[in-house]
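ligand=zinc ion
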Amino acid sequence: MIHKIINAMIVDGTGDKPFLGGLEIKEGKISRVFRGPSRDTGEDVIDAKGMVLCPGFIDIHRHHDLAAYYDPSFGEIEIAQGITTAVAGNCGLAPFPNSDRTKQAQFDYIEPCLGPVPDEHPVHLLSEYMDLLEKKALPINIAFLVGAGACATAAMGYEARPFTQEERQQAVSYVCDAMDHGALGMSFGIMYLPECYLAHEDLVALASACARYGGVITCHIRGEGDSVVDSVSEIIGICKEAGASLNISHFKATGLRNWGILIEQAIEKIDKAREEGQNVTCDVYPYAGGATTAMTIVPPSVIEGEPVSFLGTPEGIKKLKEEIYLPQPGWDNMVESIGWERIMIGSVTKEKNRKYAGKNIAECAAEEHMDPCEWFGKLAAEEEGKVGIILFSVSEKDVERIIKLPYTAIISDSLYGGGDNPHPRLYGAFPKMIREYVQEKRLLSLEEAICKMTSLPAKRIGLSDRGVIDVGYAADINIFDPEKIRDKATFTDSRQLSEGIAYTLIGGQIAAKDSRLALSGRYGQLLRKKK
Ligand SMILES: [Zn+2]
């Protein structure tokens, strides 16, 4: 247990100017903060001379729902980039709650984002799962949102229709169970099945249930391309009706023709809602490429009512060719808006397809002397839809514009679907912010960037005792030289740990030294919403 840190340049997380000083720790919390140099020595004192001290980074948007429990190496890539608290249950996608009747379809659907669910997986409810995790020695702090999509799937499966009265009640009861047991809020993934088919009243009912507990709603909106402005309006309207506060997840405008234009219109919608007193914010990952499952690029009209294997049949390929190059109102057609060459294969499940990871679909198809629709349909069928993809769909200028908004938190949106070539944000989102946007581009000051990775997300998600260096706050702390912290993961070589953080403390204990997990470093906790 560390008792004192001295001679640090303290960036306290609030966005205030740094100052030279130190702090003391007692029972896992910061018990004193002081200014000026110090000459203390001792085994339980860290001399942080020449280094910055700031709160541990808080990633409110990761998809480690399953990894946190099932992956023994969980924590390594997170702690290497200074993440001390991570929130799961995002984009409506989650393994919990689930019901026996529909869980296999649910587990298959989420696998590219969250990884496989082991056969012996024991629980149905998120509340039960949180209890399991609470008993585990966790490498970092973990909290949960309850996924609206999971609640909907557990209540009715993947039906292309709104809820019946009964199903709606059942889905709402799942939300309440999770909120009762300390979920921080609820996530929508209106782009995904089955949420995209729910009625407006269904979505309002789910949001209202969360709002009754004072939980935040986060939302992966219906469309992030041509329909981004309408989609932002839709969720603002739903949350206004429900009386819920809203954080728009991984805010962006995809599709070349929308860059610089629709993003401004969408920002106007958010600003207007804020001016009218609604609590609306957003978050962003600092990359111009996103990642999701390959099934999201298949037009619903092609696959509706058919199994995934249909995509590999001559009829399925013919239908793909007919539909995939046309704009589809109300649905983001990525192939039409960015092209096959901007869609890279990230992960696959079959050994023989591993050679495609890290290559774009146009390249893969050309290599096999096939039409891209034919190649993609065949791959999707073979892999039963379990293909992770990376989409170079966002403009760097838009990313910078969103980062600069005063109400934007930095996130990673990390997926844990496995594969050889995951999105580099899994390994490097937080150091990248400092290396690229503070040190290289000078887009914002170090204290502004750190605020967006600590106090701002903590406050937004309802973690009231984290994200600030002040008396009474948890002693989750990073100490580093801003010139040395760096992400090493790239789009073509992404499995590279970040480097350059001298110490990471969780609850006052040294969880990592030189960006590597301490051997006994399991000081994280399951965090629940405070009542
Ligand atoms: Zn999402």
